[in-house]
Known about the structure:
This protein has 119 residues and is an alpha+beta fold. It has one domain (11-117). It contains four helices and four strands, in the order E-E-H-E-H-H-H-E. A four-stranded antiparallel beta sheet has the order 2-1-4-3, covered by helices on one side. Strand 1 and strand 2 (22-24) form a beta hairpin. The longest helix has 20 residues, at 87-106. The relative contact order is 0.24.
Amino acid sequence: MRRGPADQGGVLSTFFITSGESVAAGDYDPRAAVVVWHEVFNEVWTPLPDDNVVELPEALVAQLVKADPARMHDVALSWAPLVDMDFHEAFAHLVELSTLARTAVSRAETVYLKVSERA
């Protein structure tokens, strides 16, 4: 079984929107994942600040909103080995995040990442 930051007493992370809907970031470093997702989507990216709550870049949210299953497949295929994640698990997670992004855009809300130290 893969052990990540949360299992080792590290950080807990969640992607969320203002209305309260959320997706757990999972067993990986979400800040590093955002960089990889940007690269795979061929977008210019800026590293996320080290704040506890940060807004996901609009370009990434836009890509998540318009990504079709074939595009999500490509992103998951590139990303999964970097985080020692099963392809199907990575694909499902990205689909959840894409759904959250679509909900946010349809409600004119913002997608955030919350990173908190484990108690």
